[in-house]
Recover the amino acids of this structure.
């Protein structure tokens, strides 16, 4: 091997976006795809394709969860899947006029927490088919399911139900 | 507390002026400025410091992992012991308490707690997305992950349970932005009316832009010391009397419907029909207060605490927190502000600095900023540090600082006392 005293790093035509020169502020891009496993929550997402809303029930103390979890927060025991009713009531709500960048294009949208008869905890979801001024706490709502599953909790959403 | 350990004092503090963006300084230089302010105030030298705790929330904001060691390095504190502490919005409060533990345990005689956040490297809505990633990414974030939305739902339920009004929320905004007019460190001092708050753009009903804090760049430093060192190094140390911490479920949907954990000044019959915490109250805040009060021997918070700096990321959470802290009963938070009890000249001034709403909320710095402002209040040195004494609470002897993470998942309460 020989030493090259005039070695030169090859250069490309790529540039850098500069927002400001003093202080120097440049664009730094970041993008990533995660291989996200729903792990012990998987069955919830698969069941949405069968138009079923699954919560959990503790095998030991019987506490029931509208949003599933593998183990009970009350006693630490394992839970089992527990099918929820598809009609519930608005426990609380909001209408978002702004949002995270990912959801900004969907604004305004309604967020609700749903309570189900005989179930100890709540479920967060979108409500469509009603404007902010139409929604009230205690309002009856009904689950609907997307046909083209995204395997997202938004595969289920709620609409007003007739009283 | 099962073992109280040694007495811990705060001996100095420093804060940078919080701002939407300060691209001329990076996080290391920002902490350095706050650190130099704190050390210069009592002529502290690096050799006097035994170790540190680093406080910052998100690695996403800077896309720089291990920012903590970079600060430790920049300050000249290597090779001394240090660790990072993180717990969402409560990061600063948790780090302050970790510093307390380092000194109380006898491991360190002098501990520097430094906090920082640089939120200006991404736009506000991307920033909101990063913050929303601090909600359950299986069930909550994909539904419309937006913290203001979550807090708005809590506020709506509080209004439903207790009759709290949007005008009462607005009064918190008016108070805190107004106090900040006299705080030279504050990001958004403003003189406001109820109409200003209600007419500003709706973010998530019922919360408008002026009910919500903003993104900030900032840093804050608190220096803690043992009793012996405190009186050797500082003319006017302030005792950190006790600490308390509580937690709650990550998902709002999992919050149970049980009984209120009572403070000594409450009775079970006060809350006959209240299902607690549901989504109207912060159980972690009550838990933290209970622990801190028991350790400090506080049985009547309203009459035994002179001032409070609490985590008002939303006007609604300030009202909810009055109740968690037992400054009033659950359900009375709205009238507490309406009657002026938390005003600068009220029964117990809350957020005389302007709080997060007006001072800013650079997450990792926030809880430490509260400690610094409280330290100056209890030292009666506000005039020296703010260059005016409009915000100095005249009778300030015992103060409470309160730090809070997303929807009340982690909450810290620390009690500080003037000793001379
Ligand atoms: Zn159980």
């Amino acid at each position: 091997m020989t030493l090259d005293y005039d070695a030169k790093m090859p250069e490309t035509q790529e540039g850098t976006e500069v927002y400001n020169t003093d202080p120097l502020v440049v664009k730094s891009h970041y993008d990533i795809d995660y291989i996200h496993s729903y792990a012990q929550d998987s069955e919830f997402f698969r069941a949405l394709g069968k138009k079923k809303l699954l919560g959990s029930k503790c095998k030991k103390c019987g506490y029931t969860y509208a949003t599933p979890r593998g183990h009970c927060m009350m006693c630490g025991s394992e839970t089992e899947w527990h099918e929820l009713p598809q009609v519930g009531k608005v426990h609380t709500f909001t209408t978002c006029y702004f949002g995270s960048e990912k959801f900004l294009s969907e604004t305004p949208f309604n967020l609700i927490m749903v309570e189900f008869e005989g179930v100890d905890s709540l479920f967060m979801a979108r409500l469509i088919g009603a404007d902010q001024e139409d929604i009230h706490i205690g309002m009856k709502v009904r689950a609907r399911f997307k046909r083209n599953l995204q395997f997202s909790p938004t595969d289920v959403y709620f609409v007003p139900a007739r009283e | 507390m099962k073992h109280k350990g040694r007495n811990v004092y705060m001996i100095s503090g420093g804060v940078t002026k919080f701002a939407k963006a300060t691209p001329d300084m990076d996080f290391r230089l920002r902490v350095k400025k706050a650190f130099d302010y704190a050390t210069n105030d009592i002529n502290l030298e690096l050799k006097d410091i035994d170790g540190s705790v680093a406080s910052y929330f998100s690695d996403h904001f800077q896309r720089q992992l291990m920012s903590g060691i970079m600060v430790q390095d920049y300050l000249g504190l290597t090779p001394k012991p240090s660790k990072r502490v993180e717990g969402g919005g409560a990061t600063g409060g948790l780090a302050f308490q970790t510093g307390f533990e380092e000194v109380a345990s006898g491991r360190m005689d002098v501990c520097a707690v430094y906090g920082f956040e640089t939120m200006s490297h991404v736009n506000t809505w991307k920033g909101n997305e990063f913050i929303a990633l601090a909600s359950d990414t299986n069930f909550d974030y994909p539904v419309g992950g937006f913290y203001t939305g979550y807090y708005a739902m809590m506020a709506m339920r509080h209004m439903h349970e207790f009759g709290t009004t949007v005008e009462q929320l607005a009064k918190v905004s008016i108070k805190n932005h107004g106090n900040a007019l006299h705080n030279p460190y504050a990001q958004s001092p403003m003189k406001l009316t109820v109409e200003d708050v209600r007419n500003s753009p709706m973010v998530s009903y019922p919360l408008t832009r002026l009910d919500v804090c903003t993104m900030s760049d900032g840093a804050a430093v608190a220096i803690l010391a043992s009793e012996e060192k405190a009186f050797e190094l500082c003319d006017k140390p302030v005792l950190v009397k006790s600490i308390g911490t509580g937690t709650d479920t990550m998902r709002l949907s999992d919050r149970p419907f049980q009984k209120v954990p009572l403070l000594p000044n409450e009775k079970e019959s006060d809350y006959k029909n209240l299902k607690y915490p549901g989504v109207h109250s912060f159980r972690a805040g009550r838990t933290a207060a209970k622990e801190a009060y028991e350790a400090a021997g506080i049985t009547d918070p309203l009459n035994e605490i002179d001032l409070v700096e609490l985590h008002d990321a939303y006007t609604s959470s300030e009202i909810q927190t009055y109740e968690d802290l037992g400054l009033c009963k659950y359900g009375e938070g709205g009238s507490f502000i309406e009657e002026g009890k938390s005003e600068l000249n009220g029964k117990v001034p809350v957020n005389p600095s302007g709080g997060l709403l007006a001072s800013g909320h650079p997450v990792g710095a926030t809880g430490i900023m509260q400690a610094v402002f409280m330290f100056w209040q209890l030292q009666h040195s506000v005039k020296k540090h703010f260059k005016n004494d409009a915000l100095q609470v005249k009778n300030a002897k015992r103060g409470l600082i309160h730090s809070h993470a997303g929807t009340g998942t982690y909450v810290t309460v620390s009690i500080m006392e003037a000793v001379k």
About this structure: The mean pLDDT of chain A is 96. The pocket of zinc ion is lined by residues A 58, 60-61, 63, 72, 74-75, 77 (CB under 6 Å).
